[in-house]
């Protein structure tokens, strides 16, 4: 790994472009996913708040193991942001909260049962490890986004090996005796 001193000695044209091999999952792809992290993020000097989620894809095989991040603007768009539209805030807030409640629905409906805004600890307790389906999309900026949430598609669940069958002639345990042990 290069040190600060080594990097400072390199010729630099004052430009930087991040290079990575990340390609978003195509628009409209249905995936089985598990929620790994969820946390609130607030911004200093603003009442703007988001929920940041980390999802791991469990299927289909083409995308298994991939991780993507979702940001839910639970208080609408940032008023200081480029995309802020005052007329759309009520709808955006309602849509964001519906998304959280849809995730909660497939995780056991614990957040809805609170009938109040959940704490971060409650979100983590009730939603982490929840598994559900998502329809993914790609934003104009090329970022992964969630277009929809639904229940688990059994066809995407891993097939479990069946238990070995006991042969008819194998001697088994007979628990019908009533012999007490002292």
Keywords:
25% strand; single chain; 5 strands; alpha+beta; globular; 182 residues
Q: Which spans of ≥5 residues are poorly predicted at pLDDT below 50?
A: none
* pLDDT averaged over residues: 83
Query: Helix- and strand-based class?
Result: alpha+beta
What strand order characterises the main sheet?
Answer: 3-2-1-4-5
The arrangement of helices and strands along the chain is HEEEHHHEE
Biggest β-sheet description: 5 strands, antiparallel
The portion of residues forming beta strands comes to 15-25%
Kindly state the percentage of residues in helix: 10-25%
Distance between the termini: 68 Å
- Give the quaternary arrangement of the chains: single chain
Measured on Cα atoms, how large is the radius of gyration?
24 Å
Number of strands: 5
Count of DSSP-assigned helices: 4
Shape: globular
Written description of the protein model:
The chain has 182 residues and is an alpha+beta fold. It has helices at residues 4-9, 89-105, 110-114, 120-127, and strands spanning 30-42, 49-59, 67-72, 131-138, 144-150. The protein has a 5-stranded antiparallel beta sheet, with helices on both faces. The longest helix has 17 residues, at 89-105. The protein is globular and about 60 Å long. The mean pLDDT is 83.
């Amino acid at each position: 790994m290069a040190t600060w001193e080594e990097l400072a000695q390199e010729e630099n044209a004052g430009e930087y472009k991040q290079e990575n091999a990340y390609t978003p999952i195509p628009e409209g792809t249905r995936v089985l996913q598990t929620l790994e992290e969820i946390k609130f993020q607030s911004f200093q000097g603003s009442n703007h708040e988001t929920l940041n989620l980390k999802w791991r894809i469990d299927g289909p095989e083409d995308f298994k193991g991939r991780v993507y991040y979702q940001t839910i603007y639970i208080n609408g768009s940032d008023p200081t942001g480029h995309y802020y539209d005052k007329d759309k805030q009520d709808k955006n807030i309602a849509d964001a909260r519906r998304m959280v409640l849809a995730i909660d629905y497939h995780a056991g409906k614990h957040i809805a049962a609170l009938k109040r805004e959940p704490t971060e600890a409650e979100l983590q307790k009730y939603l982490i490890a929840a598994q559900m389906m998502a329809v993914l999309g790609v934003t104009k900026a090329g970022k992964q986004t969630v277009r929809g949430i639904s229940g688990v598609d059994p066809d995407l669940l891993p097939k479990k090996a069946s238990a070995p069958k006991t042969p008819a002639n194998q001697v088994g345990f007979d628990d019908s005796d009533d012999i007490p042990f002292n």
